[in-house]
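Hey L., structure's done. Input below.
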Amino acid sequence: MTQPERQQFHEMLLAKQTVLQDRMARRDDLEVQVSPDEFDARLQLVDREFQSGLLHQTALDLRQVRSALQRMDNDSYGVCGECDEPISIARLKVIPWANYCIKCQEQVELEKLQESSVDQTAELVSGSD
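Output:
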């Protein structure tokens, strides 16, 4: 990775970090409203759960961006955290906080999917007792 590319990614990560931090700062906008109308109360609950999910995802994204900035500081940015091969510039342009090359990312996602499937199967089996 060239120094200009590295600088470009650093700027992209800092900009993304700012956006995510601003989003996290607005978490106080989530207010609990009490409505006497059951339908309105359910809509508010759904909206609150949706906003909570977005907040959770924002926190995860912020953690990944900060991790990428740390990797940049210790010169491991752009190197796959699994196989130690370079992450393609094309991938980093799309996801500058990527920690894995595409091949390893696919493997990580497959493992998560398999774990989730095993967990769901275990719940079904234990629930039928």
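Residues 3-100 form a domain with the Four Helix Bundle (Hemerythrin (Met), subunit A) fold (CATH 1.20.120.910). The first helix runs from residue 3 to 25.

-- N.
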